[in-house]
Amino acid sequence: MISIPPVVQVRDLHKSYGSVEAVRGVSFSIAAGETFALLGPNGAGKSTTIEILEGYRDRTGGEVSVLGVDPHRGGLEWKARLGIVLQTSGESGNVTVTEQLRHFAGFYPNPRNVDEVIDAAGLREKATTRISKLSGGQRRRVDVALGIIGRPELLFLDEPTTGFDPEARHQFWDLIRSLKEEGTTILLTTHYLDEAAQLGDRAGIIAGGRLIDIGLIDEIGGADARVPRVRWRDDNGTVREERTTHPARVVADLALRLNGAEPEDLEVIRPSLEDVYLSLVRGHEVEVAAAGKTSRHRHTGEATTPDAALTDKDVRA
Amino acid sequence: MTATTTGTRPQKKAPGTFELGLSRIGYETRLYFRSPDTLFFTFFFPFIMLGIFTAAFSASGNIGANPDGSGGVSVGAYYLPGMLAAGMLLSGVQNLAVDIAGEKSDGTLKRLGGTPLSPLSYFLGKIGQVFVTAILQAGLLLLVARFLLDIALPTEPEKWATFAWVFLFGVITSAFLGIALASVPRSGKSATAVVIPVVLVLQFISGVYLQFTQLPEWMQNLASIFPLKWMAQGMRSVFLPESFAGAEQTGSWDLVWVAGALGMWLVVGLVVSRVTFRWIRRDA
Lengths: 317, 284
Description:
A: 6-stranded mixed sheet, globular, B: 284 residues
């Protein structure tokens, strides 16, 4: 078997804004064709990490390779192989959807068909509408359309579905699945854990600038975090809950105890990615708070957002 | 993809810098004419001012007339060169400084920075847009002057040659100064507040709204530091009779100085643009 080098390789990445360390030693790699979800609370260092990979920010330390190129030195040919959907879009947009896509398609050596992209992004009815007249969710679709128009090998999606209604989100998932089928490698950040679970092959969870866990979507957090729970309401009306690796047996025992009567509000709950994520992030916060009692340099999530750091700098300047 | 061709690669040539620059010129020009603010404060502003001055001062007779009231030029004819110069300044400095500062803050530049568009193509687009719109503006101003205000335009080819080089030189200088000035505003919202006063004050002291030859000497000297005074002087040399040259600071049109001052400001604009422009604001 021929070993294909990873599309993204990050080793011991560090990034400081002044005295604030936003990213403190993150390592991961993304294989060709893989969809990798980078998850974490606001200000955890996700956007900083992704912007370093996109070539927008310089790093303070560590090694980064994206499509075999150091993003810091990435030229136009390298950029032509990337698709970037930024976290924010706020262009004034005095152009129509079609005009904008046609114009951007012209930047790339081998772009997708503009009409196909408009259809895939669900923008057919808005094709001749100026972008400034679109709703927030529709604008976001334009962002996604612009991100894929150049037929990228690697697609960055930074919170792509913010402002989408449920139907639009499902359409978007279908679009991403078709890109995956074509072999596009995808780096996704999102606050919707169901989205990460739907689309991702693997996930990394980042908190306080560190990667606190990484693994396959349905294995991350370890077996212990995924133990199912059986929940029901007893005769006194109080909710009872039991963690068990054998939920069927617990339910059977319960039915036996009740002489075959139906237990009220019976549920078997398998922890979702969201549950696993929340327990990991909370666990991390508890650790940090405990460490904070002995150290004056306590990490606070807010202070590590790039924007906050930049604002601080602007105030000083 | 099917491999039906031998010896040739599949057609995957990246579009050229110049080709993309042309595509940007079309795109930028379309955006210019779709922005009502730009149309009013940049494109039509010289027309509005020319109209106001002509209407306000025509009753007080010709400018530069003899004591007996004969000779001189009409108010409209006197203000035409100043308005052409103002148009050059607005199309370059005001237009691009506000436009690029806005693109910097609304995320347009960040998005472009993530695409294989070369910054050179981007600037070709901006400068091309300035040229297209400035030429349309000047052409329309001359048409209005000739046919609506009945102002006689020069017929000598030398005059039009002077017009051509002062115009081209002035517009390119303005364009680069606009790109340079775009780095000053901290946000797109503050851009107009930063740029418009600069441009307005220059127009007052450089002989666009007020007769330059009537200004106090210190103000004339101050204006001589900046490029607009020289653009206006170059334009006066084209459109005003030779007899008006005597009223200039040195008693002549000083076209060599016009070229020198514009050349110096072009270099300043180029250097500052080159040093300050970034797709996104640099982080620490």
